[in-house]
Amino acid sequence: MAEDIIRMSQKELKRLHVIQKVIDRWLRQAEAAEILSLSLRQIKRLVKKVRIEGNGALAHKSRGKPSGRGISLEIKRRVTGLYRDKYRGFGPTLAGEKLFELDGIALSDETLRKWLTESGDWQKTRNRKTHRKWRERKRRFGEMLQMDGSRHDWLEGRAPKMVLMGSIDAAAGMVYGRFYDYEGTIPAMDCFKRCARRYGLPQSVYLDKHTTYKSPRQLTPEEELEGVTEPLSEFGRALKDLGVEMIHANSSQAKGTMANFIRCLTA
Fold first, then answer.
1. pLDDT tens sequence across 84-93
2. Per DSSP, what are the bridge partners of residue 177?
3. Backbone φ and ψ of 74, nearest 5°
């Protein structure tokens, strides 16, 4: 039922998650205070509140209720009418100034912009996208390793299609490659390990967003509370443990030298 739905913000849900762990004795109150950056006294008060009032105790009491500061519909209609009759083509900031000077109506720029956008009298201007620049070539050997995988009929019908896992140093151009049955965690780790043994551990690795390298899953509440910003794949966790930075290309073209190298091989 609609009355039974509790609307809570992400922050309130995280707080409730931690308080429930305290109630279920998975966390001590002192640990919860540290996680939520609250005092021990505040945690005790929240625990007591949830035990008495239930999960909805941590939801903001005014959520879902109309604002007491809301402006009447009549004023909104009058403002949009005045804009169409007298100030059409004016930006929200200039129109707001004229409404105050000539019509005695005081509104914030954001409120006026919102009303005019909703009525279709004003369109938000879109910022032009800056031209994508090619990634600058690295200066030192070992600063960045580019890795990519390409499935292709490498043996021209004499064997099933295979994946070439290739890597190239972004500064020196040293290339390492090896064939595998598929592009996945084990082949990627094996290729990286063999390349690192031959040329040393790189400072960073430049990759595409294949699920082997970039995990598609969502963060868990525990990870969010710990400050984790992005879920890691098995390959990503391995690089993190080795102290190697992982950088994802935003497009296939951005992978640069390694992609060009593989395109030449498959041509």
1. 888 888 888 8
2. 166
3. -60, -40
